[in-house]
Automatic annotation (TrEMBL):
InterPro entries cross-referenced by the UniProt entry: DUF192, Saro_0823-like_sf
Signal in keyword set: yes
Entries under Pfam families matching the protein: DUF192
Biological source species: Agrobacterium albertimagni AOL15
Keyword flag Ligase: no
Superkingdom, taxonomy of origin: Bacteria
Annotated signal sequence range: 1-25
UniProt keyword annotations, A-Z: Signal
Protein name: DUF192 domain-containing protein
Gene3D superfamilies, sorted: Protein of unknown function DUF192 (2.60.120.1140)
Length: 158
């Protein structure tokens, strides 16, 4: 074992003191659950059980360090207004489909089978209000594509 210089040891201790409360706070983030629906052009309805990511803390935590999602489950990020959105997969160990949705419920883009643990940026491509994350490949399995529409208004928790 190589001895660590005092200055380096002090710097590492300071970093741990700084980041420990942040990591602890992130693990304490909780999510309420609900359900949303998409209507397809064929007249069908696709329902998904979701966790709501409504606050900045919830959106920052997202699905990091979570096991793979079961079928027909996901997390819906509501950004509160319409804007360009960028996301990444850092600390997310399983592939996701990211479905970007505008304020009218129109799916504007589906980023399929994102790369786990990647720090590459995934962009909405145009301004959106919502992003839905589901298991990677599940959008195609469900028949969810850019012709489907999110049923609005959402029954968000109060």
């Amino acid at each position: 074992m190589v001895p660590m210089p005092n200055l380096l040891r002090s710097a590492l201790a300071a970093l741990l003191l700084f980041f420990a409360p942040v990591a602890s706070a992130m693990s304490d983030v909780t999510f309420e659950r609900g359900q949303l629906a998409f209507e397809t052009t064929a007249g069908g309805t696709i329902t998904i059980d979701v966790e709501w990511a409504l606050t900045a803390e919830q959106r920052a935590r997202g699905l990091m360090e979570r096991p793979p999602l079961p079928d027909r489950t996901g997390m819906l990020f509501d950004f509160g207004d319409t804007r360009m959105v960028t996301m990444w997969m850092a600390n997310t160990p399983s592939s996701l489909d990211m479905i970007f949705i505008d304020e009218t419920g129109r799916i504007v883009r589906i980023a399929e089978r994102t790369t786990p643990l990647s720090e590459s940026i995934v962009s909405s491509g145009e301004p959106v209000r919502y992003a839905l994350e589901i298991r990677g490949g599940h959008a195609a399995e469900l028949g969810l594509d850019t012709s489907a529409r999110l049923v609005l208004p959402l029954d968000l928790p109060k």
